[in-house]
Amino acid sequence: AANTGEQVFVLAHYNKTPLGTARAAVFSPSAEIEFVVTAPLWHGMGLEESLVSGVIRQCEQRGTRTIFNIVPMERDVRLFRRLGFVDLTQSVTYCQQSALETAEKDA
Question: Based on CB atoms within 10 Å of each CB, which residue in 10, 82, 91, 96 is the most buried?
Answer without folding.
Answer: 10
